[in-house]
Write a structure and sequence with these properties.
CATH topology: Alpha-Beta Plaits
Structural class: alpha+beta
Number of domains: 1
Order of helices and strands: EHEEEHHH
CATH class: Alpha Beta
Strand content: 5-15%
Strand order of the largest sheet: 1-4
Bound molecules: FE3-S4 cluster
Shape: globular
Number of strands: 4
Helix content: 10-25%
Number of helices: 4
CATH architecture: 2-Layer Sandwich
């Protein structure tokens, strides 16, 4: 799977959503999350993120490893909805993400 990391936090550009052929990028309150079971590793989302927040799972920079767990945790109680557009914005974040101080300029 691919993982969305810290640069997305409080940015939520959403350019990635347009690229994903399987609609597996879900919106939380403070960032977006890639569904680890629904992502087919096509990689189309990665180059379009303007803040370079998206990484192949094995390539997530060391300082952002907690975001790997966050992408998994986000879906623990959601199961596999099978499409982000029909679900819409989800009013929560992974625990680690929700605990981060506000970002933004
Ligand atoms: Fe976030 Fe980048 Fe997508 S900022 S919403 S991962 S385009
Ligand atoms: Fe979609 Fe990106 Fe995975 S475009 S299929 S989330 S690699």
């Amino acid at each position: 799977t691919y993982i969305i990391a810290e640069p997305c936090l409080d940015v939520l550009d959403k350019a990635c959503i347009e690229e994903c052929p399987v609609d597996c990028i879900y919106e939380g309150n403070r960032m977006l999350y890639i569904h680890p079971d629904e992502c087919v590793d096509c990689g189309a989302c990665e180059p379009v993120c303007p803040v370079e927040a998206i990484f192949y799972e094995d390539d997530v920079p060391e300082q952002w490893k907690d975001y790997t767990n966050a992408n998994y945790e986000f879906f623990e109680d959601l199961g596999s909805p099978g499409g982000a557009s029909k679900v819409g914005k989800i009013d929560k974040d992974a625990t680690f993400v929700g605990a981060q101080p506000p970002r933004g300029d």
